[in-house]
């Protein structure tokens, strides 16, 4: 699977958003700041509380898509997310490589974020299958991930969680 294109890397923005720690009241601002490269230069990243609420809603919807366990559920939740998007794609080479952006360059931060996330997630699902999104199997983790393995066999969000679970399973066998 080729993840070199903007469309595919946009799914990583979606995954980061779904996994953001929403307990911290300032999480939206710190999320936007740490992902500023996704926004047109000069986009105002200081959101009003209602706009921050819309970002939280998008985050929840991405997580809902990953949690869905059947194709109809994935489709319904993906379509709920897409209903919030306002795609207006354009080609750009601002970083030296020709690629597509999904939202108007002058859209506000919420519109750029929601549109990019919805389109990135949808592309992966329609091109690679609804099973490509999952929730980490490691105890106490709960992060969502996109499975880029050849045979879609991934169960953990990260190598850290995979090895933590291997060690835990080994210890459980030793005790048994
Ligand atoms: Zn770009
Ligand atoms: Zn994990």
What ions, cofactors and ligands are bound?
Answer: zinc ion
- Please summarize the sheet with the most strands: 2 strands, antiparallel
Instruction: Report the CATH C-level class.
Output: Mainly Alpha
- Count of DSSP strands: 4
The span between the termini is: 40 Å
Oligomer: single chain
Secondary-structure element order, N to C: HHHHEEHEEH
Total discrete domains: 1
Q: Write the CATH architecture name.
A: Orthogonal Bundle
Rg from Cα: 17 Å
Give the mean pLDDT: 90
Q: How are strands sequenced across the largest beta sheet?
A: 1-2
Low-pLDDT parts are: 1-7
The CATH superfamily is identified as Jann2411-like domain
Count, helices: 6
Q: Approximately how much helix is present in the residues?
A: 40-55%
CATH fold topology: Jann2411-like fold
Percent of residues in β-strands: 5-15%
């Amino acid at each position: 699977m080729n993840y070199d294109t903007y469309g595919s890397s946009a799914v990583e923005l979606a995954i980061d958003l779904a996994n953001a720690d929403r307990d911290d009241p300032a999480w939206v601002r710190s999320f936007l700041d740490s992902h500023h490269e996704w926004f047109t230069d000069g986009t105002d990243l200081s959101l009003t509380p209602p706009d921050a609420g819309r970002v939280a809603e998008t985050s929840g919807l991405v997580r809902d898509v990953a949690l869905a366990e059947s194709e109809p559920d994935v489709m319904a939740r993906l379509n709920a997310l897409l209903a919030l998007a306002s795609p207006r794609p354009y080609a750009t080479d601002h970083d030296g490589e020709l690629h597509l952006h999904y939202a108007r360059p002058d859209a506000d931060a919420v519109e750029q974020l929601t549109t990019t996330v919805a389109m990135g997630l949808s592309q992966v699902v329609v091109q690679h299958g609804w099973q490509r999104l999952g929730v980490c199997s490691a105890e106490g983790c709960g992060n969502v991930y996109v499975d880029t393995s050849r045979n879609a066999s991934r169960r953990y969000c990260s190598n850290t969680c995979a090895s933590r679970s291997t060690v835990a399973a080994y210890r459980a066998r030793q005790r048994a």
